Amino acid sequence: MKKLLFAGALLASGAVLGQSVSPTPAPPANDTIVRVAKQAPTPAADKNELKYNLNASGTHFFKVTFLNQTWLRLNQSNPGTTVIQEAKPQTLDIGLRRTRMQMFGQLNDRALIYLQFGMNNFNYLNGFPGFNTAGTPSNRKIAAFFHDAVGEYLVFRDKDYLKIGGGLTIVNGLSRFSQPSVSSIMTMDVPVFAQATVDQTDEFSRKLTVYARGQVGKIDYRFALSDPFPIQTTGATPPALSSNATFALKGHHKQVQGFVAYQFLDKETNQTPGYMTGTYLGKKRMLNLEGGFVYQKNAVWHRENVADTVYQNLNLWSLAAFLDMPVSPANGSAINAYLGYFHTDYGKDYLRFNGIMNPASGSTITLPGASGIQGNAFPMFGTGNVVYSQVGYLLPQDLLGRGNGALMPYAQAQIARYTRLTQPLGVYNIGLNWLIRGHNSKMTLDYQNRPYYGASGTQLAPAGRRGQLTLQYQVFI
Q1: pLDDT tens track for 64-106
Q2: Neighbour tally for 386: CB within 10 Å
Q3: 268, 214 contact by CB (below 8 A)
């Protein structure tokens, strides 16, 4: 009996094991063992955007982007520079050049909404009395604001012939650098002189505007009617009426703008309102001839004959050529170049100093008819003519080894002949981009050389030069 029970247990255990373990197959007749390797699953590609599709095809969507540009900068100060009442021949500062969030979406076949919120030029002096305001107490935590709030309607379905929009927008007439896509610029920073009325009669280059834009054949165009802000709302004390033109404190007139580009090769990206790409990193073949204008009646005034007030029109225009294309598709090298001529008529002897994210708060030196001359400032805006040029070369993609990014050296120059200066102004930059992951993660080392000025009668004369070295890290998604 015990033998029968033991035999039954063995049969039962064999049946159970047979359900979970496959028997080893007999080898082939030729004793060759065949093994089938399992292929590892292909990893999914990293996503490069935050996008929610509103329909199955993805033509209707809502998208969010984030941009942060951090600067570490060593600057040789202009003579007389002070930082919080202490003399500073040089400064080392850390700042956020731009921190932005974009939200936009193609809600249906015709309607697009575009919003941008963020802040600019946030360093240790943000909100310091006498720097961002007219000596009144301020708050370092109030810098963020809406840059854009735009609604746009596509008139011809599935065609970019005509888009009509309105709101707070950077859609602009003067040039491509007057409405730059700052996440894709080739140089560390844009030529800010091209944002002609920045923070004077606009909100960081944005105005309340209605516009028409589109692409017809090889032509990319935009025309706009803008409602400028009064100069009194900048937060600073407006300059006194003098023999040199300043923005008028009386009267209000609309601003008319227009920009046209003839695209000989590929077409510009045309999705978001206004913004123009800095470099496509060889992904497109761009060769454009571009021109634009900005006009506003009685925008500026000055005093003549002691008591007479004379109003003048704001009259700006430019002509330029833009090139951005691959040199060798095999190794990924590309070139970017721009050459532009700008006529900038702000009225009689207009001149304005500006220092990007200025690291200084004051100066012990005064110049006739000039303010804000401390730190890294130079006469960026003025009545006269400007030639601006930049050139960069994207080196072969495998230069640093696969997956280590690419290098793109560049040079840029702003050469201006302003009526208030005794000699032409020259500001020069050289730099190197390390495109770790294209524009999404990149580091830029930039050196700028600029003039500083002294009085020469009623004019200003160059008195020497100073340098600025900046390291920027950009993250964008």
Answers
A1: 999 999 999 999 999 999 999 999 999 999 999 999 999 999 9
A2: 23
A3: no
